[in-house]
Amino acid sequence: MRVLVVEDEAATRDILERGLREEQVQVEAVGDATSAESRACAGAFDAIVLDVCLPDHDGFTLCRRLRARGIDTPVLLLTGRSGLGDRVRGLDVGGDDYLAKPFAFAELLARLRAVTRRGRSRHLGGVLSCGSIELDQRTRHVTVDKKAVFLSHTEFRLLEYLMRRADDTVSRDDLALYVWDGKEDRRSNVMDVYVSYLRKKLGPGSTLIRTVRGMGYTMTAQGGPRG
Questions:
Q1: Is-contact 177 44, C-beta < 8 A?
Q2: Could you tell me if residue 173 is inside a domain?
Q3: Burial per residue of 176-206, b for 16 or more beta-carbon CB atoms within 10 angstroms, e otherwise
Q4: What is the pTM of this model?
Q5: CATH of the domain at 55
Q6: Distance between CA 148 and CA 202 in Å, rounded?
Q7: Domain contains 122
Q8: Which domain holds residue 76?
Q9: How far is CA 183 from CA 137, 154, 176, 217, 218, in A?
C-alpha cells in the first residue's frame, strides 16, 4: 500500500509516518495543502490520510479540489472536530471516511484497509475535459470534437494522467510511476513512442499535448507547438 500523509503538526506526522512504515506501508508525508495537492496529482497513491486543519487551505477545501481535478484516491479525513456537521461536510466534499482525534493507531489502520478495499472513490463526476478532448473515467470513452477515439489501455492511462494534471508540467518520472507503475525507466523511449501514438489518434486534439524539453510533457486547452 502507498499512502500520502497530510498533517501539519510535525510530531503527529512523524508518528503516523513511522507507524505506517512499521506496517510495511510506503509513505510520503507533507505538512501543507499546496504540497499535498501537488503530490496527490503526481503520485499513484492507494490512500490519503488528510488532516482537516492545515496552514494554507483546510482539508475540506483540498479534498474538494482533488475531486474536481479527477483524483479518485480514497481519502481518510482526520480532525479534532468530531461534530456531526463536520463529519457530514467531510463526506460531502468527497472524503471516504472520517476519524476524530485523538485516535488509536490500530483504528486508523483498520479504516485505511477498509477504504482501500472499497476501491477508488466514487465521488467523481467522471468526465475530464481539456479543449476539444473529453474523457469519461468510468466508461473509458474518449472523444475529440465529439467524435469517438479508440485508445489502448496504456494510451488511455497516459491521456487520463495528462488531463488530470492539465496545465502542469508532467515529468518523465511521474509518467513512469503512474502510467507504467514504476516498471519503465524514465530514460526509455517507450514514453515518447506512446505519446506519438496518442497524438496520432487524437488528430486535431494532438496540439494540446506539448513537449517540455528536458522535463516531460504538459497538456493545455490553448494548445501550441508540440515541441
A1: yes
A2: yes
A3: bbbbbeeebeeeeeebeebbeebeebbeebb
A4: 0.56
A5: 3.40.50.2300
A6: 10
A7: no
A8: 2-117
A9: 23, 13, 7, 19, 22
